[in-house]
């Protein structure tokens, strides 16, 4: 097989809607409003957000020129399986950023939902389920990428990762609409792999791009602070630390370097 034949396709994925809006409060909120009327998966991109948010309701700075989009879809399987799509999204982000910057060695993935560029945070992922009870009618995968500018570090909470932008770190300018084309194609490929082969190859690929694997890190849950060596991910995507008290499996936490 030739290198050209083996190269990934960046064509827009078949059957996926594409909506580009000038302004919304947040793309995840817009996804919730539109979800009942969708007949298939859809990407919603906003050039401006007025009330963007990250994990645990934290504010997410979204200067104009940065990427803010949400993929809304009907997930297959259980809620736990749907949550693993955050790792699919992380791999898609890594692939799209690697292709557009030509610098895969500068990129890494920080558990549970960040992408790092030159050791600073360039992207974050937020999953929100849209439904009731144990069923998920739709899943919103919100993604923010600092393409043009990084937020003011002074406005972030103490201990937060240093924010960086693609333009600031590489000198490369990428338009949000252009980035969406690459990201949607990459996500579709990794999602197909996930649905065909399960989480195992996604987990392996994610670990191959993981930041600080084999190094000492700190995980803070709602009730405790745990220090240890970042050993692995378990089959559910939980963080595995080797601590002085033994192996700890941590389903949810904030990680600090």
- Uncertain stretches of 5 or more adjacent residues: 1-5
Class computed from helices, strands and strand pairing: alpha+beta
Enter the CATH topology name of the largest domain. Answer: BirA Bifunctional Protein, domain 2
Task: Quote the average pLDDT.
Answer: 91
The general outline is: globular
Give the N-to-C terminal Cα separation. 42 Å
* Number of DSSP E strands: 12
Major β-sheet annotation: 7 strands, mixed
Number of helices: 7
CATH class of the largest domain: Alpha Beta
The CATH homologous superfamily of the largest domain is termed Bira Bifunctional Protein, Domain 2
Q: Return the CATH architecture of the largest domain.
A: 2-Layer Sandwich
Using only CA atoms, what is the Rg?
A: 18 Å
Domains (count): 2
Order of helices and strands: HEHEEHHEEEEHHHEEEEE
Adjacency order of strands in the biggest sheet? 1-2-3-7-6-5-4
- Secondary structure: helix percent: 25-40%
> What fraction of residues sit in β-strands?
25-35%
